[in-house]
Amino acid sequence: xxxxxxxxxxxxxxxxxxxxxxxxxxxxxxxxxxxxxxxxxxxxxxxxxxxxxxxxxxxxxxxxxxxxxxxxxxxxxxxxxxxxxxxxxxxxxxxxxxxxxxxxxxxxxxxxxxxxxxxxxxxxxxxxxxxxxxxxxxxxxxxxxxxxxxxxxxxxxxxxxxxxxxxxxxxxxxxxxxxxxxxxxxxxxxxxxxxxxxxxxxxxxxxxxxxxxxxxxxxxxxxxxxxxxxxxxxxxxxxxxxxxxxxxxxxxxxxxxxxxxxxxxxxxxxxxxxxxxxxxxxxxxxxxxxxxxxxxxx
Amino acid sequence: xxxxxxxxxxxxxxxxxxxxxxxxxxxxxxxxxxxxxxxxxxxxxxxxxxxxxxxxxxxxxxxxxxxxxxxxxxxxxxxxxxxxxxxxxxxxxxxxxxxxxxxxxxxxxxxxxxxxxxxxxxxxxxxxxxxxxxxxxxxxxxxxxxxxxxxxxxxxxxxxxxxxxxxxxxxxxxxxxxxxxxxxxxxxxxxxxxxxxxxxxxxxxxxxxxxxxxxxxxxxxxxxxxxxxxxxxxxxxxxxxxxxxxxxxxxxxxxxxxxxxxxxxxxxxxxxxxxxxxxxxxxxxxxxxxxxxxxxxx
Lengths: 298, 298
Prior knowledge:
By secondary structure, chain A is mostly helical. Chain A has helices at about 5-25, 30-40, 50-60, 65-85, 105, 110-130, 135-150, 155-170, 175-200, 205-235, 235-240, 250-255, 260-275, 285-295; strands at about 95, 100.
């Protein structure tokens, strides 16, 4: 199976689990309008990179894909909620996402806010159920890690720094260290946690867990630079969302320039690959994933 | 100690725990603007009814107040996040809350959305930590219960039904059963869970847990009717928020009329008290709480 086939297979499994989770929510009394908006946000064509990283990292320790799906779906719910809220008029005001109207365009603002809230909440419901792992201690550890990665010191905090820089002009001259911090929080924390969550599910040894977190951290940083490079080069048809939407945003491309950003991408790819050394050939799929992230702009 | 003193004491302890939680978030790298908005939303004068119910229900089983505070603070974070999002222009568009400008007025919309997101996330972080309970199984049970009460089949779902009825006019004629369902979800689920969480922390027997859930359910319904009656009678100075803000909303007062709503309140109070019978005089504070909720409008 090629890397692309493997990625697509995981995406299909995660999609099915997400669909089932939303069906369960509807059966449990969630209003149909709310569930429809959650489906719009969470289902459909998407790479499902974070779930894939979780699945593959857990796989290093012999955890079967099927057993990782509740946690993988939880992670994707958090990612999807963040897209719904980031797209809102008060934030990035985007009309297009994954080639479809954004949730507040397809429905309205209040429905989009609530759908995001509900997706975030359902992520923790998924993690808390015994399907995620038979051991409550593992579930509690996953919930603590997800909350840290997604919260004020992670993803939400990064989005705050991003909007602050854009809307309030702080800091006046965005500098590399500031941009790296905000991106490590905004996109890096959840990607790093995807890898850590695989290690938690796999009951990895501390040094293995740290290695996967380092891999995830560098991969997340590379992913963001690749995304920013694509944004400056890309067109909306390829990206499924508006191109050059980040004009005016503080990115490493705007701070360092395109050449230096591309060079940074190469370093991050090499760091990510080095973090996998201890795993030998078992980690070949994760190596492919690092190349896949970088290859998008090569 | 009188009931009011006991309520105020719990509120002070919960406030201190909330303040500490937000200090920890700031120390953990959360942006200062985000933490300021979270503080604005979560700290200050408030009854802290939900935490109080949790503390008192856990107390029935010998759990010390100090030991209940992380879970109590988590519950209040969820309540506060829901107020921040409900107040947004796209939802209820309120300017005043607890006698202060709402978060989107004091800051702006995007900060308010993110502060709400972060408060919801931090609630699950609190529940996942060993401070909440030494047993991971108890923490996982609390997280599952909170997610169910707060999510698409609970609080968020109820807010969706409420806004749907108001903004989209569905159902054309709000009827008692529809209003009771939406209120049971919107406010009832979290109040009921506050009582259930006390039982979970106290390792209550199944019938004791069910009795406290019934108490919480009836108390929650009574609380909402009292709130709606206050809204039709009250003035903004007493309520700390705009009066008659619910004009046009589907409430039991608008559906049944004031007299019938008051009679329903008496029945709910009596149901709530009856649910406590098995606990004898130990539950006297919870009995006072039921009277307190109803007394607000008598």
